[in-house]
Design brief:
The complex is a heterodimer of chains A (352) and B (864). Chain A is α+β, with helices and mostly antiparallel strands. Chain A contains twelve helices and nine strands. Chain B has 864 residues and is of the alpha+beta class. Classes of the chains: A alpha+beta (352), B alpha+beta (864).
Chain lengths: 352, 864
């Protein structure tokens, strides 16, 4: 019995010695320690041994079993170490082959710009709202302090609809997002902090104009709103959108629905606001260190009056600019012809 | 509107002694008109000097050429080494001659000429780009420079000439010939007039008074027509820089010493609304000739071509005072003038050489016979001033801005005069311009004023008055200013001020009577002159944002879902052509029409995105293999309540002239998608809708085949309903329409009335406990008639027993090994119970039940 047990142990040891894979080790384990294994069979045969000898042989057999188990798991560890050490060869793939990508679509640059603008203004409490694109003259012009003979209301500037008018005037395609100001003020739910990003329409088409484009409009109405707030909002936007080193300035300008009115300039990102480029020439991107961003101003009292808001109690600021142009300014995209944006050539769209 | 301003000219009206042009540009831009560019007036006159012709010889080898010996003064034009080479010492170099080969037909001994030295940039024969002059040998004779024609140095407009004529500088600038030095009175009437000594070698830029001048490109906003003139810019500068404003209006009495005859020119204003005021004066005995250089120089600096002294004066006054005027040849006028609207079929030959057809919306100045000027826009050619003119009639008038704008637009003419009139000029302005014009004509053209000045139409001028308080001003600006500061600024700008406590009452000066409309405008004046840069930036706080609209939130979400699903987002125009609609079998007649479209391409407001999607796919069909597109945008349906057309109904019997557009269109956000050039576009389209709906929280949809709409493929289209509402149409476009768009192959399309769906969209999900006991999965494949639909098979299987929890399609097969008209459908079936593990016997019996049902209801056979 003892010899037989030792014989088994030796057999296991030598089998393990020559084993090279986990599978071989597995086979050895099954052959000797499995349910129908040789050692298992011998343990079962213990019943044939005289009762007095059983404890001795029993202990011996269990001892051998433990030794075998230890040897097997030791071998497994060794094999595992060897396997891990050789992975670079055994499981090598050509890592320069392309991966399997999930489907890859693209958002239009205008959508990307709109999303970014919305997020930036949300952080200082401006909520995006939507207003009609086809609207009455009252909202597009009249209530914005633009009298009937204002050039913007001429037929060569603005699209009119072939539809009967109403007591709010003719039906127009909004040439700017400022109609949102009137709709919002007419709701009478003050104070207001809104932005309106929408399609606008003007009768112009060439390399720098498209008959449909997007504008962003901001309106803040509260007690004691002042120019300091306008500067604060614009400076915040410039830094959030263009980068922390950019600054804005206001210059006098003229719009009918704001007074004072401003042109917003932002320091040039190419020449760092110096107006001189790295070759010591005049910067080609900007005008003397500044790039025009858009328009702004303090809401004109006549606009308030048109919406039944008391200009003695409330004051407000408004600002706006073209979405496409702003995006191109930021990204430095040199698109020669702005019409490219809406030509929908997929080779163009897939670049963003 | 942009215009060019000479810095030296501006100095005539405001004291700018200590202000550099750079500084000026920076500070004025921040508080007034924007100064966009600065450039030196003599940018291209480097190495170009005045020379004196000493000797002329015939060129030995060419008949038409001469060799001129020219004194070009000192040696400072040459490097020291060259001087040494020529053996000249410093002391002896004040006279230096060069020999230049020249073919000028008007070259003379003792002439003062323009010499381009080696290294100068010139325009060869006045054409093409600038080239740098090099030393040359011309037919065997060395030539150290060039005697220039005016066109070669960019001065053709100032000194017109024929071919081969060189610029005779002495003659052109009125110097006497033969003298060694020239005393040059730089500028008549110029307070800063300087006497310049010109001698051989003087840089041309100095001799022309250009060397220290800077031209500014200034943008003036449309409301500030007063600042579209030199005096207006000077007035702004004086207030912003706090410098003395030195302009004084011309006093009529001082300039007119003698008047011939009596009576005023005969003027009648028939169109009183269109012409509030008209001044006219006659001067007889004028001499029409080229203007002196100082005037030419100033006009050129503003980009205006000199013509003759009289025409130049009218342009000069316009530039100075921003008040247009016109001068007629009095001898060519028939009778008095009438300001009236043109009569139908009247024509005028204008000064630009074009004939214009007029109508009764165009304001004209007419004599007894015909229109002689398009009022405020352009004069007529027949009555214009020419070299033969001896007596002139001056017109300085005020015209209605809208009439001028619309008239000029109709005739498609843009002029400096019209650009100012259309912005609105003060009726108080004409007398100032008239006095200045008379002063200049008498000075430069001679002659005598005949009779008195006619001044028609003017009623008493009433100034506007507005009030502000210091408190409201400070509240709006956000930083405090004292009342004294406020008043100081307004006074500097020409406002007359009365103070009562905190109230400031300001009388508006006439030159601002169009743009100052309200007390608020006074606040702007104070804020801008103080400087916006000094106002601190404060981010407003203390207001909670309102919740974002669900539509905007979901719109953004669906964009990202679609991008993630591999679709490209496109943006197409909201207005489309009727042709496009027709190609897609949409009837554009009933859509909202643009009344004044830019082109037929943008004619109607679309009621569907699908035609545009098809167009974009068509455009891209040869560029890209696989096309997957989506767009989310408004469509413009008839107003709610007017006509309730089903959204798939593209043909309505109503005509465009009906009343359906008596209210604003119902703008609805729509989602459209297109699949082309991929395997089974129909399945991709449906999968996209299933994915999107699932992501938007819209589950338990019901699907209904659509075969009655000719736009869609009759066998491959389905409508999707949620709680009874149509939420999507999915399928293939009819092959006929695909062919119209040259799309060769099946085109999958999706149309979702997104806006209507928004209320159903949700992030909320129902929790179903995950099964505790393992699920049993079996595959089943049945053969059925090919018209039996999958939906019915799945329903039948599920109906067999509640323990069958899901049925999932994985294959449909038709063809080889199957009888004709049969198809095989394969599904995964999942079975599970919440309280135990299903035994295999139980699973088998569940399957049997399902198969039994399929056999009975759908005549299905088990596929083996």
């Amino acid at each position: 019995m003892e010899d037989a047990l030792n014989g088994l142990k030796l057999a296991v040891d030598s089998a393990l010695e020559s084993a090279k894979t986990d599978m071989e080790v597995e086979a050895i384990e099954i052959k000797y320690l499995g349910r129908k294994g040789e050692l298992t069979a011998m343990l079962k045969n213990l019943t044939n041994v005289p009762a007095a000898d059983r404890p001795v042989y029993g202990a011996m057999a269990n001892g051998i079993k433990r030794q075998m188990e230890t040897a097997i798991s030791a071998k497994r560890r060794i094999l595992s170490v060897v396997k891990m050490a050789n992975l670079a060869d055994t499981e090598r793939v050509d890592v320069t082959e392309p991966g399997e990508r999930p489907p890859e679509g693209h958002l239009h640059v205008t959508t990307q710009a709109i999303n970014e603008l919305t997020t930036i203004f949300e952080k200082i409490g401006f909520t995006r709202t939507r207003y009609p694109e086809v609207d009455w003259d009252w909202y597009a012009f009249e209530a914005l302090n633009m009298p009937a003979d204002h050039p913007a209301r001429d037929e060569w500037e603005t699209f009119f609809m072939d539809a009967p008018g109403s007591k709010k005037g003719r039906m127009v395609l909004t040439p700017h997002t400022s109609n949102g100001q009137i709709h919002e003020l007419e709701k009478g739910d003050l104070p207001i902090r809104m932005i309106n990003i929408a399609k606008c329409y003007r009768r112009q088409i060439d390399a720098t104009h498209i008959p449909m484009f997007h504008q962003i409009e901001g309106l803040y109405v509260d007690r004691n709103v002042s120019i300091t707030h306008l500067r604060g909002v614009l400076d915040y936007f410039a830094k959030a959108f263009f980068g922390p080193d950019r600054v804005t300035r206001l210059r006098p300008f003229h719009f009918r629905f704001t007074e004072p009115s401003f042109e917003i300039d932002i320091s040039c990102g190419v020449c760092g606001g110096t107006g001189i480029n790295t070759e010591r020439q005049k910067c080609r991107v900007c005008k003397r260190g500044w790039v025009e961003l858009g328009g702004a101003g303090m809401v004109h009292p006549n606009v308030f009056k048109a919406c039944n808001v008391d200009p003695k109690k409330w004051s407000g600021l408004a600002f706006g600019w073209g979405v496409e142009r702003t995006f191109m300014m930021k990204s430095g995209l040199q698109i020669d012809d702005i019409r490219t944006l809406y030509k929908n050539d997929l080779r163009f769209l897939k670049q963003f | 509107m942009n215009f060019f301003v000479s810095y030296n000219w501006l100095k005539e009206y405001v004291d700018l002694k200590d202000v550099t042009p750079e500084d000026f540009a920076r500070r004025i831009s921040l508080s007034g008109p924007g100064i966009e560019k600065l450039f030196p007036a003599a940018e291209y006159l480097d190495k170009i000097v005045v020379g004196h012709v000493l000797e002329i010889q015939k060129h030995p080898n060419a008949d038409t050429l001469y060799i001129a010996t020219v004194d070009i003064g000192g040696m400072r034009h040459f490097k020291r080494s060259v001087r040494a080479d020529k053996g000249l010492k410093r002391k002896k170099i004040d006279r230096m001659t060069v020999e230049i080969v020249c073919g000028g037909s008007n070259l003379l001994k003792d002439q003062w000429v323009v010499i381009a030295l080696v290294g100068a940039k010139i325009k060869w024969h006045g054409d093409g780009d600038l080239v740098t002059l090099e030393s040359a040998e011309i037919r065997g004779v060395k030539s150290d420079g060039m005697i220039c024609a005016a066109s070669e140095i960019g001065l053709f407009d100032a000194f017109p000439h024929t071919n081969h004529e060189i610029l005779d500088l002495g003659n052109a600038l009125g110097w006497s010939m033969g003298t060694k030095n020239v005393r040059l009175n730089q500028c008549v009437g110029d307070q800063a007039a300087r006497i310049l000594m010109v001698k051989p070698g003087t840089p041309l830029a100095d001799a022309l008074g250009l060397s220290d001048d800077v031209i500014m490109d200034i943008e003036v906003t449309t409301n500030r027509v007063d600042a579209m003139g030199m005096v207006g810019i000077a007035r702004e500068a004086s207030a912003i820089l706090k410098k003395t404003f030195t302009w004084k209006p011309v006093e009529f009495k001082k300039i007119v010493k003698e008047i011939n005859g009596s009576g005023a020119p005969k003027i009648k204003i028939s169109a009183k609304k269109e012409c509030p005021r008209f001044l006219s004066a006659k001067i007889e005995g004028v001499e029409v000739k080229p203007s002196p250089w100082w005037m030419k120089r100033r006009l050129l600096s503003a980009g205006i071509r000199p013509i003759n002294n009289i025409v130049d004066i009218s342009n000069y006054v316009l530039l100075e005072l921003s008040q247009p005027m016109h001068v007629y040849d009095a001898a060519k006028l028939n009778g008095g003038l009438d300001v009236r609207l043109a009569r139908p079929k009247e024509k005028i030959m204008a000064l630009d050489g074009n004939s214009y057809d007029l109508d009764d919306t165009i304001l004209v100045i007419a004599d007894r016979l015909r229109p002689v000027a398009i009022a405020g826009v352009m004069g007529g050619e027949e009555t214009g001033v020419t070299v033969n003119t001896k007596s002139v009639l001056i017109e300085v008038a005020n015209f209605d801005s809208i009439t001028i704008r619309r008239g000029a637009r109709k005739l498609n003419i843009q002029t400096d005069a019209q650009q100012r009139y259309e912005k609105g000029l003060s009726t108080a302005a004409p007398p100032f311009a008239m006095a200045r014009a008379i002063e200049l004509i008498l000075e430069l053209g001679g002659g005598k004023l005949t009779g008195s000045i006619a001044d028609i139409g003017q009623t008493k001028y009433v100034s506007k008055t507005f009030s502000i308080t210091t408190d409201e001003t400070n509240a709006l600006i956000g930083v405090p200013h004292s009342q004294k500061e406020m008043v100081g600024i307004l006074r500097h700008l020409g406002f007359k001020i009365k103070i009562a406590g905190k109230k400031i009452t300001a009388t508006v000066p006439w030159w601002r009577d169009h743009d100052i409309e309200d007390g608020r405008d006074l606040v702007e004046e104070i804020a801008r002159i103080e400087g916006y840069a000094n106002i601190p930036a404060v981010v407003p706080v203390g207001l909670a944002s309102r919740p974002q609209s669900p539509e905007l939130m979901w719109e953004k979400r669906v964009c990202f879902i679609s991008k993630g699903a591999g679709l490209e987002e496109i943006y197409t125009y909201s207005f489309v052509s009727k042709d496009l609609m027709a190609k897609a079998d949409y009837d554009a007649t009933s859509m909202l029409h643009v009344q004044n479209p830019l082109t037929a391409e943008f004619a109607v407001m679309r009621t569907s995105l699908l035609p545009s999607l098809l167009h974009v796919a068509s455009e891209n069909r040869e560029r890209v293999d696989k096309i997957r597109l989506f767009e989310i945008a408004n469509v413009y349906d008839p107003p709610v309540g007017k006509i309730h057309a089903a959204r798939t109904d593209r043909h309505t019997r109503e005509r465009a002239a009906d009343t359906r557009w008596s209210d604003l269109p119902n703008e609805q956000l729509e989602l459209g998608a297109l699949f082309f050039g991929i395997k089974d576009p129909w399945r991709a389209a449906k999968g996209y809708v299933e994915h999107v709906m699932h992501e938007l929280g819209i589950d338990s949809l019901s699907w209904r085949r659509l075969s009655s709409d000719t736009f869609w493929h009759p066998g491959r289209t389905v409508q999707v309903f949620f709680k009874g509402d149509l939420v999507a149409t999915v399928g293939e476009v009819s092959p006929k329409i695909a062919e119209n768009f040259k799309l060769d192959g099946p085109v999958g399309l999706v149309n979702v009335p997104f806006g209507m769906l928004v209320p159903h969209m949700t992030d909320a999900r129902t929790y179903i406990p995950v099964p505790v006991f393992p699920e049993a999965k079996r595959d089943l494949s049945v053969v059925v008639d090919h018209r039996v639909e999958y939906d019915d098979i799945a329903r039948e299987i599920r109906r067999a027993d509640p323990l069958i929890v899901s049925v999932e399609w994985f294959d449909t097969y038709q063809g080889k090994n199957l009888p004709d008209g049969k198809k095989s459908v394969a599904v995964h079936i999942t079975m599970s119970a919440s309280d135990r593990t299903l035994e295999s016997v139980e699973v088998d019996s569940l399957l049997e039940k399902a198969i039994l049902g399929l056999k009975e209801k759908l005549k299905a056979d088990l596929r083996v």
